[in-house]
């Protein structure tokens, strides 16, 4: 059999096939009767917006749930992937977005975790080194000393070590979740070369991303998910970028770019030379009344850190902040809230909401001082406000005494937004306000953000959701490695241009 | 708009979840308010039944009921203060036993200058411990259990060092009969010949602290802090101050209890207050305040205190020894914490 024929046969073998797979969470059907398959020797991309069900589908493959419904076949037989161990046994390896390496341990201990070679009752150090070298060789890292500690290597190398760790178990299927999110352009190129080689060796790769240009570089087929449902599977050669976007958002793209530009007259929040050493440096910008100012940057660019300083959660090292042309110094977030500057955190569950309390208590949490008269807290005075916000944001169920932890992700996010809208802030800093919510909740949240701006408030929108950033913002500031490297007016903003700039490239 | 998008099955699902949540809530509410007192009533009935069967004597007498209330009033004073610490999500203040001992012994020592200076000195001593805990745990985020345990032993060392392991007696230290009598009266003063001063103090504290916890700005911010400390911080609530204040409240109630127990025993000694840490936590947890914070009420804790009082009384009348009583209280604590954790897990929340 010639090399070419061999490749062809391996290509056609289905490594994993999912039939009508569903996964139910409290209140939402996260994955709804999805059919999905991946063949040996191909890269099958899985794309969709935040909350489309990509991660849930991936976790099903990883064996994270024991209560999914539907059938999963590998080869000719049906398999149960109810525990991570069962998935591993079936040759499935995962590479998660966040690195899962143990920092204080050596590369070898991480790569060979759970299968450290032994000689008698002692570890076989020679074998450890050779085996680790072999694994590292598969990702082009043979020059690394296996005894080095993980904390001493770069993030990019960490990512590759993670892949080496997965490959060391001789998997048949490799699932990668946004593997490029923390990598520079050159590092991405190197990763793609490695992926290409793995593919040639007959590995089946599921590649999860929401970054379209990458998909066209690396994938053979692409499946689009939206609201937990499969929208379609296409060969990469037979589909265009705009078609995929349309499949992802469910409507034509022009509809999405709807925001009107604002008049820029009065300066609201002005920042001069603001620095927090090690996180961001010499940040200066102005924002105006009635403006939505976008801030974009890759993770680690210092966006959230900047926001934390602006609301007094962290101390600044130098620089000045002016609110309505008055210099302000904030010692804690309570002072920021009192000054009308609020911050919607990106971590809804840990930092945003008191999940055990009800909708009303959460929405009024920032208003407790205002609702206290003569020492007595008057919750009744806030009820009207709560009910109005529940209606405006169509929070479901529309009952202010529901425990927030029992709501769906989208509704939790709306409650979090409602908490800050209730405070009627002058400046609202939003950090990924639609992370992990469904498209319906997303549009409701967008409408409320626009209303806030139209009423003359300033919204600073930090988002890694590029369509959102580009469609809502009147200007976008691009941050990279702790500095603002570019300011783009609305007319120049496209998803591609913003992304290129954030990567330190483009005009 | 989003509502229309939900498929019928999802709606059905939500309905089921809703009814489950409501029923758990209702159960929780009944448990938190009526339930604790229903359990207390059951203990009372059990005592009456045991008496009518002739197994124990003198249970349902005015004197015994007064005894029970006397016995629980000190525990109650400690527990309603420490409840703030638990409610804030910081579990417990284990420095209470030696706070009680220190404030008592300081008061006795200062009796030589009169009754009022003695009380003021005791309150200052208690306040000092409270402030140390408040700064270390509120501001510097020390682990509350480890930190207060350490403070407990440091205070113990201070007492034994300063008073060279001696016990001191109010009637020997006081220069005037009046000061000695007044100090004696803290525990022994009775209104209408029945109701003791500590009980009145307890009732005032319950009313006052319940008001603070449920009706004031501090109480509301405390609830959010106890339920989700990080979220509270990101809402602009000064969680450091909120948590710190709970330890000051706890130290002050421990001071009141310390004065009472020293007045009762007529001796200032390092061992006054021993065991009150665990007894108070047990009362708090039985009273429906979970260790996860943000749940329960002072009224519930009072119920927990009454249950412990009745239980101790019946066990004593039955002739159960002190060590066995400790063991039984330990078992009940484990049981209640276990049930709490399980019922929270069944609600889909494993945060207990």
Largest sheet of chain A: 6 strands, mixed
Main β-sheet, spatial strand arrangement of chain B: 1-2
Number of domains of chain B: 1
Unreliable stretches of chain A: 1-11, 252-259
Give the largest chain-chain interface (CB within 8 Å). Answer: A-B, 49 and 39 residues
Mean pLDDT of chain A: 84
Low-confidence blocks of residues of chain B: 1-9, 17-23, 348-352
* Total helical segments of chain B: 15
Q: What is the approximate shape of chain A?
A: globular
Structural class of chain B: mainly alpha
CATH superfamily of the largest domain in chain A: P-loop containing nucleotide triphosphate hydrolases
Major β-sheet annotation of chain B: 2 strands, antiparallel
Please identify the top-level CATH class of the largest domain in chain A.
Answer: Alpha Beta
Please summarize what this structure is.
The complex is a heterodimer of chains A (507) and B (352). Chain A is 34% helix and 26% strand. By secondary structure, chain A is α/β, with parallel strands linked by helices.
Task: Walk me through what this model shows.
- The complex is a heterodimer of chains A (507) and B (352).
- Chain A has 507 residues and is α/β, with parallel strands linked by helices.
- Helix content of chain A is 34%, strand content 26%.
- In chain A, the strands form six sheets. In chain A, strands 6-9-10-3-11-12 form a six-stranded mixed sheet, sandwiched between helices. Chain A has a six-stranded mixed sheet with strand order 18-21-22-15-23-24, sandwiched between helices.
- In chain A, helix 15 packs across helix 16 and helix 16 packs parallel to helix 17.
- The longest helix of chain A is centred in the middle third of the chain and has 16 residues, at 185-200.
- Chain A is globular, with a radius of gyration of 25 Å.
- Chain B has a single domain (21-346), classed as ABC transporter involved in vitamin B12 uptake, BtuC (Orthogonal Bundle), CATH 1.10.3470.
- Chain B is 76% helix and 1% strand.
- A two-stranded antiparallel sheet of chain B has the order 1-2.
- In chain B, helix 3 crosses helix 13 (276-286).
- At the A-B interface, helix 12, helix 13, strand 20 and helix 17 of A face helix 1, helix 2, helix 10 and helix 11 of B.
């Amino acid at each position: 059999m010639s090399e070419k024929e061999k490749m062809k046969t391996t290509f056609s073998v289905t490594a994993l096939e999912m039939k009508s797979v569903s996964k139910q969470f409290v209140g939402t059907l996260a994955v709804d009767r999805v059919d999905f398959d991946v063949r040996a020797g191909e890269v099958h991309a899985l794309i969709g917006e935040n909350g489309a069900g990509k991660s849930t589908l991936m976790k099903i493959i990883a064996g994270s749930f024991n209560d999914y419904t539907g059938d999963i076949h590998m080869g000719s037989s049906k398999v149960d992937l109810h525990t991570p161990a069962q998935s591993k046994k079936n040759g499935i390896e995962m590479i998660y977005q966040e690195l899962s390496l143990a920092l204080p341990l050596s590369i070898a201990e991480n790569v060979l975790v759970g299968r450290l070679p032994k000689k008698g009752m002692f570890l076989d150090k020679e074998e450890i080194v050779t085996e680790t070298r072999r694994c590292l060789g598969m990702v082009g890292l043979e020059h690394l000393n296996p005894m080095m500690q993980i904390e001493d290597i770069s993030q990019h190398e960490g990512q590759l070590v993670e892949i080496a760790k997965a490959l060391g178990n001789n998997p048949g299927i490799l699932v990668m979740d946004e593997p490029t999110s923390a990598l520079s352009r050159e590092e991405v190129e190197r990763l793609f070369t490695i992926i290409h080689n793995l593919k040639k060796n007959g590995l089946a790769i599921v590649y999860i991303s929401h970054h379209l240009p990458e998909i066209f570089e690396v994938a053979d087929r692409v499946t689009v998910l939206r609201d937990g449902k499969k929208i379609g599977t296409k060969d990469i050669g037979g589909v265009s970028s705009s078609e995929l976007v349309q499949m992802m958002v469910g409507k034509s793209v022009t509809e999405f770019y709807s925001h009107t530009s604002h008049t820029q007259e009065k300066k609201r929040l002005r920042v001069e030379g603001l620095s927090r050493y090690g996180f961001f440096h010499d940040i200066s910008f102005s924002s105006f009344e009635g403006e939505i100012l976008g801030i974009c940057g890759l993770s680690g660019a210092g966006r959230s850190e900047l926001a934390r300083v602006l609301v007094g959660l962290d101390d600044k090292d130098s620089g000045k902040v002016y609110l309505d042309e008055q210099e302000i110094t904030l010692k804690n977030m309570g002072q920021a809230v009192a000054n009308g500057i609020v911050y919607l955190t990106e971590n809804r569950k840990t930092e945003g909401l008191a999940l055990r309390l009800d909708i009303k208590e959460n929405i009024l949490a920032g208003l407790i001082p205002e609702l206290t008269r003569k020492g007595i807290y008057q919750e009744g005075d806030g009820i009207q406000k709560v009910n109005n916000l529940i209606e405006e944001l169509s929070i479901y169920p529309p009952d202010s005494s529901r425990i927030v932890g029992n709501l769906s992700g989208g509704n939790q996010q709306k409650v979090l937004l409602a908490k800050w809208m209730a405070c009627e802030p002058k400046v609202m800093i939003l950090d990924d306000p639609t992370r992990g919510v469904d498209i319906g909740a997303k549009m409701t949240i967008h409408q409320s953000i626009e209303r806030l701006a139209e009423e003359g408030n300033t919204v600073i929108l930090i988002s890694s959701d590029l369509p959102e950033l580009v469609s809502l913002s009147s200007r976008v500031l691009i941050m990279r490695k702790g500095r603002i490297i570019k300011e783009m007016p609305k007319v120049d903003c496209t998803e591609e241009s913003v992304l290129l700039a954030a990567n330190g490239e483009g005009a | 708009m989003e509502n229309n998008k939900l498929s019928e099955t999802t709606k059905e699902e939500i309905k089921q979840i809703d009814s489950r949540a409501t029923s758990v809530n209702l159960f929780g509410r009944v448990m938190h308010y009526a339930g604790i007192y229903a359990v207390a009533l059951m203990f009372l009935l059990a005592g009456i039944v045991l008496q009518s069967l002739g197994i124990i004597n003198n249970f349902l007498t005015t004197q015994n009921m007064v005894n029970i209330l006397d016995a629980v009033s000190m525990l109650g004073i400690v527990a309603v203060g420490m409840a703030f610490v638990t409610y804030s999500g910081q579990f417990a203040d284990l420095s209470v036993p030696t706070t009680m001992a220190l404030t008592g012994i300081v008061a006795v020592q200062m009796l030589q200058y009169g009754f009022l200076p003695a009380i003021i000195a005791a309150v200052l001593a208690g306040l000092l411990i409270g402030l140390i805990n408040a700064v270390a745990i509120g501001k510097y985020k020390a682990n509350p259990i480890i930190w207060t345990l350490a403070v407990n032993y440091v205070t113990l060392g201070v007492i034994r060092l300063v008073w060279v392991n001696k016990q001191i007696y109010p009637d020997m230290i006081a220069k005037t009969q009046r000061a000695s009598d007044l100090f004696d009266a803290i525990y022994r003063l009775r209104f209408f010949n029945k109701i003791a001063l500590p009980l009145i103090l307890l009732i005032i504290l319950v009313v006052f602290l319940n008001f603070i916890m449920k009706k004031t700005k501090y109480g509301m911010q405390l609830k959010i802090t106890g339920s989700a400390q990080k979220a509270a911080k990101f809402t602009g609530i000064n969680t450091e101050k909120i948590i710190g204040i709970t330890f000051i409240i706890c130290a002050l109630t421990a001071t009141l209890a310390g004065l009472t127990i020293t007045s009762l025993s007529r001796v200032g000694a390092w061992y006054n207050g021993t065991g009150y840490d665990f007894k108070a936590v047990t009362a708090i947890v039985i009273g429906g305040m979970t260790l996860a914070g943000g749940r329960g009420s002072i009224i519930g804790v009072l119920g927990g205190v009454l249950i412990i009082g009745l239980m101790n009384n019946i066990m004593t009348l039955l002739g159960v020894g002190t060590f066995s009583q400790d063991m039984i209280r330990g078992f009940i604590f484990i049981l209640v914490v276990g049930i709490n954790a399980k019922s929270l897990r069944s609600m889909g929340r494993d945060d207990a």
